[in-house]
Amino acid sequence: MSRAKALQFYILTRLLLAPLMLLTIVTLVFLLLRATPGDPADAILGNRAPEAAKEALRERLGLADPLWLQYFRYLGQLLRFDLGESLSSQGLPVWDVIQQHFPATVELTFFGMAIAVLLGVTVGMLAASRPGTAMDVGGRLFGIITYSLPLFWMGMVFQLIFSVQLGWFPLGTRYPINVLPPSQITGLYTLDSLLTGNLGQFFIALYYLVLPCCSLGLLLSGIFERIVRVNLKHTLKADYIEAARARGIPERRILFAHAFKNALIPVITVLGLTIAALLGGAVLTEVTFSWPGLGNRLYEAITLRDYPTVQGIMVFFGIIVVIASIAIDIINAYIDPRIRY
């Protein structure tokens, strides 16, 4: 089989598996949501509401029907691209809920990942290129510490130090309440402010992003540091690297032109899946910093037993993860031909 045909067959296989992955995600979310304690009728009407009113609400929402009927009805809605209406947002369509909150998550994810990749890859490369030195030990400690720290704990520590004690950064919001936000073009405040040519709004949006993004980026950087350091160390011991050194090629060129490219495959995989997971809602960061993103909205919907919102957001998350997974596999197959076969 030629390389082109092998790559085409691999891509086709991954695309055919995507609907099965989505169906699995939808089924698990549907079943787990109904297996957890709690009743949407109690969450909406309150525990003191008459039982007759609760039963009437369950009938209206279709929750009194058999589970299999609810499941197939929900699958039929999904085939029509209908995610239903939010129970906790006065009948607002779930698509509108996603549209309102997703841009904040995208913005948080983009800047958080930029910090994580820049910091993690830099520290990992420095540590791997100087084995057995203090830089190597320091990089190892950096990776272990940042990888093991709880995200919510680090967020609270950052808020306590930089917001409460020092007063350098704002607490618990995305933009000042008393300042008009940028015009809604994409929903991303930093991008919208640049598109409208308002640098003042751009720097305000960046200022409010600093604390949550640094908290998220610092802890995620440990993942990339560990992967880059381990893979780059292994690559630098390969025979073709020794041959390049024997030919007198400068060490810097060997590191960047030869070793780093081959160490990129696991980094790309982790990067893509991490971005997909964060776009699917950096729940702990958003809840800790009261960031009005989709992860925070998911947490509220779970608390309020809002089945349509939880299911809709999780389906949306699932689509993101599946698309990212397929894209990563295709990129890796293009970089490394061994994956195609």
Which fold does the CATH topology refer to?
MetI-like fold
Largest β sheet strand count, sense and barrel closure: none
Count of separate structural domains: 1
CATH superfamily membership: MetI-like
Helical percentage: over 70%
Distance between the termini: 9 Å
What is the number of helices?
15
The string of secondary-structure elements, in order, is HHHHHHHHHHHHHHH
- As an assembly, this protein is single chain
Q: What is the rounded Rg?
A: 24 Å
Instruction: Give me the count of strands.
Output: 0
Q: What is the strand and helix layout of this fold?
A:
Blueprint: H1 3-35, H2 40-45, H3 51-61, H4 67-79, H5 94-129, H6 134-148, H7 151-165, H8 189-195, H9 199-236, H10 239-246, H11 251-262, H12 264-279, H13 283-288, H14 294-303, H15 307-335
Helix pairs in contact: 1-15, 5-6, 5-9, 5-12, 5-15, 6-9, 7-9, 8-9, 9-12, 12-15, 14-15
In short:
The protein is mainly alpha-helical.
Give a structural overview:
By secondary structure, the protein is mainly alpha-helical. It has a single domain, classed as Orthogonal Bundle (MetI-like fold). The chain is built from 15 helices and no strands. It has helices spanning 3-35, 40-45, 51-61, 67-79, 94-129, 134-148, 151-165, 189-195, 199-236, 239-246, 251-262, 264-279, 283-288, 294-303, 307-335. The longest helix is centred in the middle third of the chain and has 38 residues, at 199-236. The model has no long low-confidence stretch (mean pLDDT 79).
